Fold Flagellar hook-basal body complex protein FliE.
Amino acid sequence: MSIDAINPIGEFKKIELPSSSEVRNNNFYQAVSSELQHVSEQYRVAEEQALTLTVGNLDDVHQVMSAINKAKLSFELVTQVRNKLLEGYQEIMKMQV
């Protein structure tokens, strides 16, 4: 896929973008994807433990609260990393070439 861009002189230029399969082969994509899956798994475990506690099959409230807090902190970390990436992208887009 290509897009039209304007260089600093004001001329139009075609820029080739990487295909989605090339992006998926990137280590960064794999790292972000695995971390998101990890956070999702932590939320699933926390939800299961909370359900088990609610039903009465689990007596350790501390274990449930620990799982919930771990999932919450992981989500907050992912959110902050996303925010920093967006800020960096916005700063790059503001740069004059």
